[in-house]
Amino acid sequence: MANSPSSSSPVIRDVIAERVSRRTLLKGSLASGALIAGGSFVGSLFAGETHAAAALSTLGFPELKRVYDKTHAAAEGYETTIVARWGDPLVAGLPDFDGNKVAADEQEKRFGYNCDYIAFLPLPKGTVNSDHGLLCVNNEYISPNVMFPGMTEDDAGKTMSKEQVDLGMAAMGHSIVEVLLKDGKWSLVEDSPLNRRITANTEMTVSGPVAGHALMQTSADATGTKVLGTSYNCSGGFTPWGTVLTCEEGVSDLFGGDPKKAPTADVLDRYGFDGSDIYGRGRFHDRFNLDKEPNEANRFDWVVEIDPYDPQSKPVKRTALGRMSHEASTVVLNKDGRVVVYMGDDDYFEYMYRFVSNKAYDPAKPASGNDLLDDGVLSVARYEADGSMTWLPLVHGQGKLTAENGFADQAEVLLKTRLAADTLGATPMDRPEDIETNPVTGRVYAVMTKNKKRDQSKVNPANTRPENLWGHIVELIPPGGRGADADHTADKYAWDLFVLCGNPKDAAVGATFHPDTSDNGWFVCPDNITFDPAGRLWVATDGANDFDLPDGVYGVDTEGPARGLPKLLFTCPNGAEATGPCFTPDGTTLFLSVQHPAEDAETLDKVQTLWPDFKDGQLPRPSVVAIRRKDGQPVGA
């Protein structure tokens, strides 16, 4: 297929390897002659405005000077609190955490590892309370090289013991914790009945068009409707009816065996399966061995819906949202009541997706959200050079999505989402990550973190730079009007390049930030984004370490004279990335995940930081941080 990137698409290990290879600095010269849309400043939608000085930014804090060392830093006037660490107890009676001794069964009762996406859901349910709520936090993966003495990331899959493998399975997934703000400090409610872990061992239901399909059936589940566990939970979203969506971002390297011998070898290849089994699961658990359970792989790479308010509820894998390396599942309630979910597929040359529910949600009847995500239309984006973008429906029987082309029914279209998107000629992007909607303008912002594999022959209107090591952000403009008037169900949008990232002083990079961007303000490798209640964009980065810079969080105006002008608020410690930014409803707290501190070390004995506790003999601990102004006013104001 002309647009299929299967020959160059990586397994998820390749993506994670970029995150963990901080010790290798960039080699070789940067690409020159980059194609740049919009000139030196991408602001064509506001071309009539005069670019004002940085003083006109709506972000009122004094910009942080870049700091990259063993601890984190925040701008003057701000304070930080560690809210939840790897290993913090979620039930009463557990001993103090010791990362050198934690057992797998005990880890099921403790906060998970490598925290990522965060959703804050107020308590009581249905309120907009900003000082009491639930933090719903993804635990994406584990870092064996800084968890187990003497182990490197490369040898983990072959050398981890069963206890270590099981610990890793228990440390990944999702954590739900009750949190409370008192005297300006957030803390975890240790014995809350709402505290909960969802791991690779949690039973889940499969729903939607793929439920019960023959390719979902295994020896342990002949119905194809029950799945044990979730993994590689990266970004996510939350719904108007109070549930959380957690995204499975590719599981290809969690499986052993030979994918070439499987009945669906072509599909496994398109999804990056190579039998690498980097955490050793297939050596001890048959369901992660493709030779023994070839269909188990099909039961992952979905969006999982969780009801955090009901600890007895069973998570549901919503197959109507498609199967891919999910990054984000941002929910928008459209003006006609239908629900829209924006999603990215975080691999090289992959695509952007949108789901539109067939039925409307009624806020007066929260139960109307039940199973709303099982019935709707999934589409994939195609960008045009004229500034238009079309959503192409992935519907069986339409166009080339027929049995003759390998799609027997709608279930197969969704099981083979990537192949279906290839068939329709979607636009291959530079690793689509988070996609969020501005609550004030209604515009949608999509993050492309980077793509080192794109050469000059593969540039396209929405991905303009070969060997894009720096990333960029695309702005989508739905028709219909501003804010709530925007029609997120329309077939066609307008689009623009919001910023091309990188050092604006290096002409070869072709960065397009606002001309008043400071030496501390420009950033690379945008990953997760969010908006504050005032409509300002906040960008968390993943990959700045490769440029000998800290990853961190930047605020950016999206309109007005300071459009495209970033300011640095927070930096991470050695080896860590900033991810999962999330505001309380009143905007006075910004929660942030600091993921994989010290992971740039080859082995545990070589770590550069023991963040956040700095206790000799203990381990670095991924943690959730709360950032607040000392005067209690909204962040960024």
Structure notes:
- This is dTDP-glucose 4,6-dehydratase.
- InterPro entries: PhoX, TAT_signal.
- Pfam families: PhoX (PF05787).
- This protein is mostly beta strands and 637 residues long.
- The protein has one domain (12-25, 38-250, 301-629).
- It is 8% helix and 29% strand.
- It is built from eight helices and 31 strands.
- It has helices at residues 12-20, 104-107, 156-159, 162-171, 265-270, 281-284, 410-415, 417-424; strands at residues 73-74, 78-85, 115-122, 132-139, 173-182, 185-188, 196-198, 203-207, 226-228, 233-238, 244-248, 303-306, 316-318, 326-333, 338-345, 348-350, 352-360, 376-383, 388-393, 429-430, 432-437, 444-448, 472-477, 492-500, 526-531, 537-541, 552-556, 566-571, 577-583, 589-595, 623-629.
- It has a nine-stranded antiparallel beta sheet, with no helix packed on it.
- Strand 5 and strand 6 (185-188) form a beta hairpin.
- It is globular, with a radius of gyration of 23 Å.
- Mean pLDDT is 92; it is low at 1-13 and 15-53.
What is the total domain count? Answer: 1
Beta-strand residue percentage: 25-35%
Number of helices: 8
Mean pLDDT score = 92
Please list the strands of the largest sheet in the order they lie side by side: 14-15-17-18-19-24-23-22-21
Helical proportion?
under 10%
Low-confidence stretches: 1-13, 15-53
Shape: globular
Largest sheet: 9 strands, antiparallel
Report the end-to-end length measured between terminal Cα atoms.
50 Å
Number of strands: 31
Rounded to an integer in angstroms, the radius of gyration calculated over CA atoms is 23 Å
